[in-house]
Amino acid sequence: MSKLGTETTEIISWPEEGVTRVPYQVYMDPSVYEQEQLRIYRGPTWNFLALEAELPQSGDYKTTFVGDTPVVVTRDRDGEIRAFVNRCSHRGATVCMDSCGNTKTFTCVYHAWAFDAKGDLKGVPFRSGVEGKGGMPEDFDTSKHALHKLRIETFCGVIFGSFDPHVMPLQEYLGEKMCGYIRRVFNRPVHVLGYNRQSMNNNWKIYFENVKDSYHASILHTFFSTFGLNRLSQRGGIDMDDTGMHHVSYTYGSSNENEDTYKQANLRSFNSKYKLEDPTMLEGRKEFADGITLAIQSIFPGMVLQQIHNTLAVRQLLPKGPEKCELHWTYFGYEDDDDQMTTMRMKQSNLVGPAGFVSLEDGGVGELVQRGIVRDKDKSSFVEMGGKTVQSQEFRATETSIRGFWKRYRELMGY
Ligand code: FES
Ligand SMILES: [Fe+2]
Q1: What is the three-state SS of 15-57?
Q2: Is 265 a residue whose pLDDT tops 80?
Q3: What residues flank ligand 1, with Cβ below 6 Å?
Q4: Can you give the pLDDT at residue 230?
Q5: Domains of the chain by start residue, with CATH
Q6: What is the pLDDT of residue 258?
């Protein structure tokens, strides 16, 4: 056992086996949660904030989070994207209370300090007091009281923010391979079709592991395999960036080869006797020239970009305490979609979201883990499917990208 992580009140003992073991303590310890907010979310990471398509006009804004810090993303008068902490520089009140809108000025309800879309302080009521009495001191300088600004970079219309002024440029952080997969989906202007939000009673990392876990999909999600949408026997693999912190799990469209693997293994997930009452729910079009029908991409620490057939969405994972997290889904299509395509995307989206035919189980299985480990923080999980290394693999019966996550997590956390 190596004893590292000296800044946490309780020391994490990471098992000697390294990334093939995860001490359950990291899913429940409040001091670990605190350190994550500093070292990961306020550290050298880029965090998904919004799509540019959500803020098309000057003055448009959206409220969101980086880790558990509330943040406002805006498009300023010059068309530039900005972001700042949603915390008044006077005495800390939440400045913007709507989830989205358009405004020139953000005025705090408490004492009406007013800020522009850049986050700069523009107005302070009673600055000179009342009838010459009271008011701010002589040396009060509005330029010293802007809202806390984040660094912003966009890639293919996806907006990322960082608290760390020294974080590496976004494209370097994503790496060439991951940029390629983002470009693949955001290949032309998109428009938002809708949103979902869900709350989960588990640590955020349990959900992120689930996203990176291609091994579970055809076993846990019986809908997938029952209707032939995704089987591990289909051609596919895991692609990772050089650090291992991001990943893509990709699957090529239906093929009947190797289906026998399922029959022989007698997995409950192979069952052809069920038929959909309304098969139009799964109707779609082939739209990616590379033939990939399912691509799930994770960007450390909390973004997921999904293409499940014609269902395109970004998921934003937000920690809400050691044993709670939220998932914010943004569904989108392309601006040049015809009505039929939009209808197909909407119908197919029944697969995903909090009550989706497929993703419903992902929202529940995390809580099963959280409940199971409750009294065993000194024990560890076992992550050796597909080997013990962190590397891209041309198969999906593997946990390689989960190991990749923990590799980067440990570096950032000092464990
Ligand atoms: S706390 Fe915002 S104006 Fe006072
Ligand atoms: Fe899943």
Answers
A1: CCCHHHEEEHHHHCCHHHHHHHHHHHHCCCCCEEEEEHHHCCC
A2: no
A3: 88, 90-91, 93, 108, 110-111, 113
A4: 63
A5: 47-153 (2.102.10.10), 188-413 (3.90.380.10)
A6: 40
